[in-house]
Fold each of these.
Amino acid sequence: VKGYLNKIAVNARLNAFNEVFEQEALTCAQEVDSRIKQGIAGKLAGMVIAIKDNICYKGHKVSASSKILDNFTSVYSSTIVERLLAEDAVIIGRCNCDEFAMGASNENSHFGPVKNFADESRVPGGSSGGSAVAVQAGMCHAAIGTDTGGSVRQPASFCGLVGLKPTYGRVSRHGIIAYASSFDQVGPITRSIADAALLLEVMAGPDEYDSTLANKAVPSYLPDNKPVSVKKIAYLQEAISSPGVDSEVKSNLVQYIDKLRNAGHIVKPIAFELLDFLVPAYYILAMAEASSNLSRYDGVHIGYRSPAAVDLLSTYKSSRSEGFGKEVKRRIMLGTFVLSAGYYDAYFAKAQKVRRMIREKTEAILKEYDFILVPTAPEPAFPIGRMEKDPVVTYLADIFTVQASLSGVPAISLPTGNNSKGLPLGLQLLAPHFEEKELLNFSEYFL
Ligand code: GLN
């Protein structure tokens, strides 16, 4: 813990943490030490973890990197925090992120942008950008993020790490600040696949506080390192043919396809006709759900209340106007629009139908193939400042991560080297629902 605290202090300019639980982490580490000596320590003894600042931890502040949660303290812990602590993890602090997890660059934060440790003029990805940089710069052993449309996988790929989004319904969302509830999942950001597997194993499984969880037993997810049988892998042809994909991202994909073929696996291109509908369907649905989830921040029940509030209406208006940042307001307005009476069928209902088609098509591919292979992002980490200039370009870059989110299937981003500028690249594997065990096993082999 002392070593990590030192790294956190030395790298404060990266802005990865919203708060460091310094004293508490040191005390907790001493307690874990004594349990190790007594031989009664849990599975995560020795693991120092950072959590994204949208994960509730009793008695600790949680802000979702928003002014509207200024000074808000959690009155209970999320299920995943309880499970991590029960296995003797040490939680070292809460990490910066895009406000309410809305973003892909960590630039939409009330606490300012996070810098990528590989190139400080560039973004770390998002929304779990602080979590990724905390691991990338050695400020903790592993971090926990949330992934609604790529927020664990994309920052992992921008920072040269492993990022896993489990199947929707595998990990409890109880105590996670909601963005888009039918997409949100918690996932680990780690250096190794074994660490991701261990953290998933500890966090996964039924929880009486989250009714969307599957009632499925949790296996041991640790890779077994047995010989891998011949696999059938599909890759999206567009990832190689589209002009929108960076040329070094393409050659990285081609290199791994060749490697798999040389090892005897069957790797085939597929056309995904619904590709152009992935980003629009995702953003319509995610914004709609967000506009509803964020209606609870009213300046009355929790968080920030504007000093300009004089009656009920002005309390709502001024607290929300002053408390939410620009991107969050944009999404509340767009989400409210697509849900409004005159437009509901044209946008929200239509997007739900498109989601159903995307899910069915994805499931059909994953019946025929063991995995789908795609880049995690069409480009490596981009310069800080782009989100402000052109949000739509940033939305469109979610093209490869939102398929798994819309379909609910598990997906992992794996670090597959650096480009010619030394920026990390990542490839992503998608597997059928609840096949995390196979996915992690194959990932270990793949790298
Ligand atoms: N970039 C996507 C968005 O802005 C995904 C964010 C996430 O997964 N939380 O919605």
Amino acid sequence: MNNIFESKSPLIKHLVSNLRDKNLKGYNFRKYVREIAQLLLFEALKEEKLINKEIETWIGKGNFPFLDEENFVITTILRAGLPMLDGILEIFQNAPAGFLAIKRDEKTLESHVYYIRLPDLKGKTVIITDPMVATGGSLDSALNILKKENPKKIISLNIIGAPEGLKLISEKHPDVNVYIAQIDKKLNNNGYIIPGIGDAGDRAFNT
Ligand code: URA
């Protein structure tokens, strides 16, 4: 699993453990998720190239290094990915965002894509946010859809994954770098991550 990068950051681990507390309500759950997404972005972009841009400073014009913001498109899987998307868009304020809605059949655990709304991805660095990589089915479907649009590169930001799902993603998408906060023990028979956090969408939106 050479393309799966699990965070070693104590701060990220601390925030993930906070998410596991079942008494944490939606507002604070979303806040921690936003913060984890931002910290994962920091890890994912450590090697990213900078471009020099001229700006006016208080002592006159000067060239300074910036990320090429126009190169990034942020995408997410509804609805659990929304707070992560929000966290990333707080940093890349002008980045276009794209949405995929994927539902998991709770019996067969198969993923069904029922809505796709993507900006132009051609030649772009696409960041996909999806908090839970359980069977890996939804992320696999999402990555297949994104790849059809010919992006330059795809980076996946995820919070908790099961070894089973991450193995699938690593085998099917060795070209996608996955930055994940925590790899948990296993999946249960219903496809939930153990110990995990339960249903991330329900937790985030108080349902
Ligand atoms: N989706 C979730 O939100 N949680 C899991 O544990 C698995 C899939």
